[in-house]
Every structure is written in C-alpha cells, then in structure tokens.
C-alpha cells in the first residue's frame, strides 16, 4: 500500500482493478483545509487517460513494473513477436497492446516493454525513429511558397506528410507519439 503523499510521475498503481501510470498530479486544498491530489492516470493496457481526485487519507496499491529492452522480430495477424536482448526468449504481444505505434516498427527495432511479473503490459517505442522513404511524389519545381507538404510512403508501409524536398530513398526522422515528420537524416 502506498500513501497518496508518495505519488510521483511515472508511478504505477492499481486503481479500479486495472493498472494505471500517473502522468500528472497536483496538490490542492479546499476551503476547510482538506488536502487532495488531482491526478491524470493512463491505463497501461488501453492507453486511455482518466482524471481522478484522491483524498490524503486514501491508500492505493503501488505496482512494480519491470522494464526490459526487446527487439522486434516479426508479426502475424494478431500478435507481434519480440525477443529479449539478454536471454533471447521470444514472446508474443497482442497487436492491440502495441496500438498505433506498430506503424513505425521495423524488424530489428529495440523497444521498451513493461512487465507485471511475467506478463507483458505495454510497449514503448523511442520518441523518434529513422525510416526510409520508399515512395514519394516528385515535387513541382518552383512550388516553394507557403507551407506545402506531400505524402510519402515509408518502409513500414505508413504514409505521412513531409516537406516537398523529401525524395524517395531519403531517410527521415519521425516522431512516434504524433506520427509527424521531424527532419531529414
């Protein structure tokens, strides 16, 4: 059991029979001096963020999550397969658990996987990844006025918008949180 006063960003807790990670918290007091803590909690399985207010007398179960570096190997229709880089054990993780980030996974990529005991809970890609452009429309010469963009296809078959100077064969850096173009590498 953990006291509410011990809350910190990134702490995993059991709340409503699910595991949540504290993404934000703020101490607040009411007019009568009762202290409360307003939190934003992220469900590690679904990624949904909820807001909840705890009183200082509340107790929650702190959950210990182990972080392991795993290498992405391949996927089938319902699972993605990762290998522990230290023990070489292979584990399947459901495509739903990886979520939208699977668009930026290429074979051999290193991913952080959080475990609760021996059960994988969630995976997290690095903030940015470098991917090669496999298809790109040619840009029109002299078309440089304004904020022009064009669509390109990356080596993971994901389409994103990029500036007109990006060409087929270029390697670009992509933000995995938003799916936006960052820079040319």
Quick summary of this structure?
With 185 residues, the protein is mostly beta strands. It is 2% helix and 54% strand.
3D architecture notes:
With 185 residues, the protein is mainly beta. It has three domains: 2-63, SH3 type barrels (Roll); 66-124, Beta Barrel (OB fold (Dihydrolipoamide Acetyltransferase, E2P)), CATH 2.40.50; 128-184, Nucleic acid-binding proteins (OB fold (Dihydrolipoamide Acetyltransferase, E2P), Beta Barrel). Helices cover 2% and strands 54% of the residues. It has one helix and 16 strands. It has one helix at 95-98; strands spanning 2-3, 12-15, 18-29, 35-43, 49-55, 59-63, 66-75, 79-84, 90-94, 110-116, 119-124, 128-136, 150-154, 159-162, 171-175, 181-184. The strands form three sheets. It has a six-stranded antiparallel beta sheet with strand order 1-6-2-3-4-5, with no helix packed on it. The radius of gyration is 21 Å and the shape is flat. It starts with a strand and ends with a strand. 15% of the residues are buried. The model has no long low-confidence stretch (mean pLDDT 85).
The CATH class of the largest domain is identified as Mainly Beta
Report Rg: 21 Å
Order the strands across the largest sheet as they lie in space.
1-6-2-3-4-5
Strand content: over 45%
Largest sheet: 6 strands, antiparallel
Task: Name the assembly state.
Answer: single chain
**Order of helical and strand elements:** EEEEEEEEEHEEEEEEE
* Helix residue percentage: under 10%
By CATH, the topology of the largest domain is: SH3 type barrels
Overall number of structural domains? 3
How far apart the termini lie comes to 47 Å
How many helices? The count is 1
Shape: flat
Q: Based on DSSP secondary structure assignment, what is the total number of beta strands?
A: 16
CATH architecture of the largest domain: Roll
Mean pLDDT: 85
Q: Give the class from helix and strand content and strand pairing.
A: mainly beta
As residue ranges, the low-confidence spans are: none
């Amino acid at each position: 059991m953990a006291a509410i006063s011990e809350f910190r960003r990134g702490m995993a807790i059991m709340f409503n029979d699910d595991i949540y990670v504290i993404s934000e918290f703020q101490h607040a007091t009411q007019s009568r001096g009762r202290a409360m803590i307003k939190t934003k909690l992220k469900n590690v399985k679904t990624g949904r963020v909820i807001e909840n207010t705890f009183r200082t007398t509340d107790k929650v179960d702190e959950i210990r999550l182990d972080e392991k570096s795993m290498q992405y190997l391949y996927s089938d229709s319902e699972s993605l397969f990762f290998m522990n880089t230290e023990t070489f054990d292979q584990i399947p993780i459901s495509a739903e658990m990886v979520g939208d980030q699977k668009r930026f996974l290429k074979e051999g990529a290193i991913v952080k996987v959080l475990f609760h005991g021996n059960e994988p809970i969630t995976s997290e890609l690095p903030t940015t990844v470098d991917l090669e452009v496999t298809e790109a429309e040619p840009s029109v010469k002299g078309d440089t006025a304004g904020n022009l963009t064009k669509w390109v296809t990356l080596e993971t078959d994901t389409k994103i918008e990029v500036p007109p100077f990006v060409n087929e064969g270029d390697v670009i850096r992509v933000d995995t949180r938003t799916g936006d173009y960052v820079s040319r590498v």
